[in-house]
Amino acid sequence: MSESNSVLEGKKLAFVGSGVMAESMISGVLEKKLILPQHIFASHPRTKRAEELQAQLGVCASTSNREAAQAADIVVICVKPQRLRAVFHELAGVVTSSQLVISIVAGANSSSIAQQLRHAAVVRVMPNTPAQIGHGISVWTCTPEVNEEQRVQVRAILSALGKELFFEEEKFVDMATAISGSGPAYVFLVMEALIDAAVHLGFSRQDARELVTETLLGSVLFAQESHRHPAELRNMVTSPAGTSAEALYQLEKGGLRTILSKAVHAAYQKTATLSDIINKG
Ligand SMILES: NC(=O)C1=CN([C@@H]2O[C@H](COP(=O)(O)OP(=O)(O)OC[C@H]3O[C@@H](n4cnc5c(N)ncnc54)[C@H](OP(=O)(O)O)[C@@H]3O)[C@@H](O)[C@H]2O)C=CC1
Ligand SMILES: O=C(O)[C@@H]1CCC=N1
């Protein structure tokens, strides 16, 4: 048994709000064989979804958040921010001091989670959807009451989804929400736009998709493996008086850098709005 397996041996994990992200996390944990399926509890308000999770993943699924939370050592809260207050209401006083609470909810501060759940040991994580294929990145922090053994368990769970980065200061989780949490949405928009542009030129949709996907994948791997600065890699493509220079001129003229910066900032500001909704209703 690997070290990451043994730190979670015999542990039980519950997911409250079993939608897209919860399913990704459950799949990652099962894939890496960190926890047995019968030691994973998932709750969802719709019976059909609970049955689907049970049939597909072999986990114990029910429609009761309380039942799921009470069954586990580690409770992962995966509902949308707008549903969080209702879930706090249900779980306050139910989670005991020996349990660990992990929240992946955007904008939900660990202090407000601790206060509303009346529970001190809280981990706050911002994962992202590439976790579904083990290539996610999760940024996390925790309250001082989370002990070393629990921190090791959190690392093991997050490592099953890809990479993990711990920050002492919570503001980095909100900042990461705007970069890595929402980031896949920006990338997929660029991907979609490039595919449409290729179709506009005359490529079939299938060829356009392959050309764009491989170009994005190859460029990311090249940047990662070469360790060169993106500007240097861009210069390698950009021939004097060539085609790339022409395209880059239009992108700069259209304000690509500014618009990306504004978009990231808007996402970051939204975390504060979500926090207000969670705190004040
Ligand atoms: N999607 C992403 O890329 C990321 C999301 N997050 C965070 O993860 C959380 C979940 O997001 P995501 O998985 O995308 O959302 P989903 O909507 O897919 O999942 C949330 C699930 O909770 C269910 N639900 C609604 N009300 C309750 C309730 N009272 N009790 C229990 N379950 C309930 C929803 O059911 P129904 O559909 O029927 O309403 C839904 O299936 C959010 O807080 C988000 O901020 C964090 C990082 C990345
Ligand atoms: O869009 C959202 O609010 C969530 C949080 C980060 C990614 N998706």
TrEMBL record:
EC nos: 1.5.1.2
Domain (Pyrroline-5-carboxylate reductase catalytic N-terminal) ranges: 12-107
Superkingdom: Bacteria
The keyword Amino-acid biosynthesis is assigned to this record: yes
SUPFAM superfamilies attached to this UniProt entry: 6-phosphogluconate dehydrogenase C-terminal domain-like, NAD(P)-binding Rossmann-fold domains
Family named by the database record: Belongs to the pyrroline-5-carboxylate reductase family.
Name of the molecule in the record: Pyrroline-5-carboxylate reductase
Organism: Candidatus Chlorohelix allophototropha
